Amino acid sequence: MATPLLATKLYIPPLRRSLVRRSRLLERLDRGLRRKLTLVSAPAGFGKTTLLSEWVAGLGQTQPKARIAWLSLDGGDNDPVRFLAYYLAALRQIEPGIGGAAELMLQSPQPPPPESLLTSLINDIAALSVPCTLVLDDYHLIHTLPIHRQLAFLLEHQPPLMHLVIASREDPPLPLSRLRARGQATEIRRADLQFTPEETAEFLQQVARQELPPRDVAALQRRTEGWAAGLQLLALSIRGRDDVRQLVQSFTGSHRYVLDYLIEEVFEQQSAEAQDFLLKTSILD
Questions:
Q1: What is the pTM of this model?
Q2: pLDDT per residue over 166-186, tens digit each?
Q3: Extended beta strands in the chain, E state
Q4: Do β-strands 67-72 and 185-189 pair in parallel, antiparallel, or remain unpaired?
């Protein structure tokens, strides 16, 4: 019996109302379509999902024939059968009915070797006549070796018209070195995602509705190191306040909003063993 799949994991995240257009990164993503893989790898809060949802929205306008699918992963997808079921469901946003034979193999009481199933799926993808892109978001939540091997096989034999995008907080254990050597990978990393001073000023105008002097923007740029989440939290803090400059000068990692974010998005995402280790080895209260 097939496991029910959550449809919302296949939704493309909606664009934010206040959005700084990051043209330099969007152009790199466009150029990457000629390669097998685009990897967007950076720690929490650097705007990976926001950038990709903006790019996907624009791609649908500039390349109307291109077909796009999105899969938001979570910790429950570490079962290889469940992962492939969602992978198939995402591909069916591109072409309904694709992977029918692979799905039957997946549901068989005695499934064939993984390569047989994946070969059938790759042949179906190769039969598509239009370019297609699949985005796998939050891939850092996948830690099962058989899944990494499945994805590596799919990447190795990926048809020319298909492009894979992976967003992750850490580099996945895929053959990245081989893809780099062959010129088949585009990589966008933390240094690329950091907001420039110009982007920071525009962001604050849109989100905080504040136009700060250049020296305050520069100070904020240094303090946040272009971290998108930090800028968002600061923007929420200064909206409608009169003591903006004082808050900018005092904004640090100990700000309540920043601490709450780090606890929820970083600390609580660790295993119990890692949390215990971090607490016991921290030199700070």
A1: 0.85
A2: 999 999 999 999 999 999 999
A3: 37-41, 67-72, 132-137, 162-168, 185-189
A4: unpaired
